[in-house]
Specification:
about 20% strand; about 40% helix; alpha/beta; about 550 residues; single chain; binds 2-acetamido-2-deoxy-1-O-phosphono-alpha-D-galactopyranose; binds zinc ion; five-stranded mixed beta sheet
Length: about 550
């Protein structure tokens, strides 16, 4: 076929290093940038076929998120702005790993298996982060698209969630918003200004926020957006690109190290947040006068947002099902608070945003966050319609109308396609303003249980198999019994282990009533993994 002659010709410019095998992992392909040129070209091909199949625009984002500068990666975006469906991850992995000369026959198989009409037009949106390798890698994606005669739109430097947003806007014919960066800023910022209009006594301190941009794309985009906020939010931006990407800064560093990022100037008690390298994660924090660092992670964010939404739904008299979706990494205190005090439904899924996203879709209002700060809120079509009707109904009384309008603006400030640091930041800032709440008051809603995360190197991490949303180990034999026995020795304790989806390790999580107990439980469980699951290298050492 003529199509494939072009593919064969162009693929020689994007040759695959011999013997390299990569998997479409939790968040697409990700590794050192120098191994990725052929992957990018081939993902251009996959995206073009996916576009023909779905008769919709597909997105390809070139980024390695919170990884170091020398890495890169690629994420594919499906028509409604969600992550690529699991069914196609297999196609992507297969095409990524075949030898060059096999490309045409593998493409042919895919086309047949998926019954793709090759005369259908294809449109692929491409975006990239600020890594030095992203320029040429996004060109390789475009080359792949053009090799199959697809149309492309190169959005250049955008955050990952901005590209997700563009895809959804385009495929809903503008119903979700205008598919431009300006359209994105104007929708989100207008909603933010409408929300904060209801807070006439907001002080300058409340309007001020310190942002750590991780020296990534999120920082550039906050700068670009600023004038749309009309000084209703005044950002002091640090790590805006003057330093190394994700190096000792950004959401992942702050969450894992539980300390301030380098490169920011901040006073005691001031509200700060950190984005990650591609702007899809956010965590908040402050330091108290005793010098202690206080982290407000994805669990605290989910609690703040769900409390706010629940109150508004009650005020609006709307009987809509609200749920919070978490993973096993959610702090036990957050789950107790949500279930026992807030009386909201809590669901636990496997690690990985796509699992949380799907679970959240089952509710009228689904708030989902990973503890690491990746998350958003989804509203069902029916819920959005009910809110709109109530807001537009002239017979609605004042209290219900106010709540319905606030809900409507809240929907517009949220990026429902995927976790979005900019959108989450605007929502959190609006909620704090509306509730007249300080970051300390937000932090005091519940107290996190001390916890510890460790990694254990084993010869084959897949020997650890889990069930019950990764909370129980079903293999190797005896491991779960050992964990149960260890957990019993501590108060308010919980622990689980799972193979990582992005690193060659088994992860161990433990929480308990004191940091010492959490540390010692995590260590003992690590030893059990090491002994029962084929640990390699030295035995894990105690933390103290
Ligand atoms: P793994 O390596 O599978 O634990 C990590 C994060 C996930 C998710 C993915 C994708 C933790 C414990 N795990 O997955 O939440 O964000 O990376 O980036 O934070
Ligand atoms: Zn990210």
């Amino acid at each position: 076929m003529a199509h494939f002659q072009e593919v064969s010709k162009r693929s020689t410019l994007h040759s695959k290093p011999a013997g390299l095998v990569l998997q479409y992992g939790t968040a697409g392909f990700r590794t050192n940038a120098k191994h990725l040129d052929h992957i990018m070209f081939r993902m251009g091909l996959v995206a073009t076929l996916r576009s023909k199949k779905t008769k919709a625009a597909i997105g390809v984002m070139v980024t390695a998120s919170h990884n170091p500068e020398e890495d890169n990666g690629v994420k594919l975006i499906d028509p409604m702005g969600e992550m690529l469906t699991a069914a196609w991850e297999g196609h992507a992995t297969h095409l990524a790993n075949v030898e060059q000369q096999e490309l045409p026959s593998v493409l042919e198989d895919m086309i047949e298996k998926e019954s793709i009409d090759m005369s259908q037009e294809a449109v692929v949106f491409v975006g990239k982060d600020t890594r030095s390798s992203s320029d040429s890698l996004s060109q390789a994606v475009l080359d792949g698209v053009h090799a199959l005669h697809g149309h492309s739109k190169d959005y250049g430097l955008v955050t990952t969630p901005q590209l997700h947003y563009m895809v959804r806007c385009h495929n809903t014919q503008g119903l979700y918003g205008e598919a431009t960066v300006e359209g994105y800023y104007s929708k989100l910022c207008q909603a933010f200004i409408e929300l904060t209009k209801n807070t006439p006594n907001r002080t300058d301190d409340q309007k001020h926020l310190t942002v750590d941009g991780a020296n990534g794309i999120g920082a550039l985009k906050v700068r670009e957006m600023e004038h749309h906020l009309k000084r209703e939010l005044q950002v002091s931006l640090f790590n805006h690109g003057d330093g190394q990407l994700n190096h000792q800064c950004g959401a992942d560093f702050v969450k894992v190290q539980q300390k301030l990022p380098t490169g920011i100037k901040v006073n005691t008690g001031e509200r700060c947040c950190s984005f990650d390298g591609d702007g899809d994660r956010i965590v908040y924090y402050y330091t108290s006068s005793d010098g202690r660092f206080h982290l407000l992670d994805g669990d605290k964010i989910a609690t703040l947002i769900s409390t706010f939404l629940k109150e508004l739904l009650i005020q609006a008299g709307l009987n809509l099902k609200l749920a919070v979706v978490q993973t096993a990494y959610a702090n036990g205190s957050s789950t107790h608070y949500l279930e026992d005090s807030m009386k909201v439904i809590v669901r636990c899924t496997k690690t990985g945003v796509k699992h949380l996203h799907h679970a959240a879709q089952e509710f009228d209002t689904g708030v989902y966050f990973e503890a690491n700060g990746h998350g958003t809120v989804l509203f069902s079509k029916a819920a959005e319609e009910k809110i709109k009707q109530l807001a537009d109904d002239p017979n609605t009384d004042d209290t219900r109308k106010r709540a319905a309008l606030l809900l409507r603006h809240t929907i517009n400030v949220i990026n429902q396609t995927v976790g979005d640091a900019i959108s989450d930041m605007l929502l959190i800032e609006a909620i704090l303003a509306l509730k007249g709440m300080t970051v300390q008051q937000w932090d005091a809603i519940y107290t996190d249980l001390p916890n510890r995360q460790l990694k254990v190197k084993v010869s084959e991490r897949r020997v650890v198999d889990t069930a019950d949303a990764e909370r129980r180990a079903v293999s190797p034999a005896g491991l779960q019994d050992a964990i149960d026995g260890l957990v019993k020795k501590y108060r308010h304790a919980r622990s689980f282990v799972r193979p990582s989806g992005t690193e060659d390790v088994v992860r161990v999580y433990a929480e308990a009533d004191t940091q010492e107990s959490a540390d010692s439980l995590a260590h003992e469980v690590s030893l059990a993994v090491y002994r029962l699951a084929g640990g390699v290298g030295d035995e894990p050492k105690p933390l103290h």
